[in-house]
């Protein structure tokens, strides 16, 4: 991506602005405040020249709980509450609208951090 090549960039996906998911499932020592998400990196690099927006679009979910969700780990983040059907529809519509108005869409796909 080069500054000036696009006017509007949409960074779409449940991991687009998630520091926790950027770390990945197998990292055990990390510093979340120092972690940069895809959205933050693109915005920080090009945001003074173009418009960079983000939306999750969908919420990642597990059909079977992770073993790490069944035990208490000090400092571990709690799973986020499930969206209602109305919120899920609204989030998907918002992401679709952002993507439709963007010159470039960056789709983020990741595995949920456990």
Structure write-up:
By secondary structure, this protein is an alpha/beta fold. It has one domain (8-107). Helix content is 27%, strand content 12%. It is built from 3 helices and 3 strands. Strands 2-1-3 form a 3-stranded parallel β-sheet, sandwiched between helices. The protein is flat and about 50 Å long. It starts with 7 loop residues before the first strand and ends in a 7-residue tail after the last strand. One of its GO terms (biological process) is carbohydrate metabolic process. Keywords: Hydrolase. GO terms for molecular function: hydrolase activity, hydrolyzing O-glycosyl compounds. InterPro entries: Glyco_hydro_3_C_sf (IPR036881).
Helix % is 25-40%
> What about the largest sheet?
3 strands, parallel
- Strand residue percentage: 5-15%
Order of strands across the main sheet: 2-1-3
Give the count of helical stretches. 3
Helix/strand order: EHHEHE
Distance between the termini: 31 Å
Helix-strand layout with pairing:
Elements: E1 8-12, H1 19-23, H2 38-46, E2 51-55, H3 85-101, E3 104-107
Parallel strand pairs: 1-2, 1-3
Short description:
With 114 residues, the chain is of the alpha/beta class. Helix content is 27%, strand content 12%. InterPro entries: Glyco_hydro_3_C_sf (IPR036881).
């Amino acid at each position: 991506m080069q500054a000036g090549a696009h006017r509007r960039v949409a960074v779409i996906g449940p991991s687009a602005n998630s520091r926790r998911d950027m770390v990945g499932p197998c990292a055990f020592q990390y510093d979340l405040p120092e972690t940069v998400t895809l959205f933050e990196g693109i915005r920080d690099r090009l945001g003074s020249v173009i418009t960079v927006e983000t939306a999750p679009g969908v919420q990642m979910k597990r059909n079977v709980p992770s073993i790490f969700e069944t035990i208490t780990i000090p400092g571990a983040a709690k799973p986020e509450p499930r969206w209602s059907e109305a919120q899920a529809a609204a989030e998907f519509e918002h992401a679709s609208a952002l993507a439709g108005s963007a010159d470039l869409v960056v789709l983020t796909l990741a595995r949920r951090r456990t």
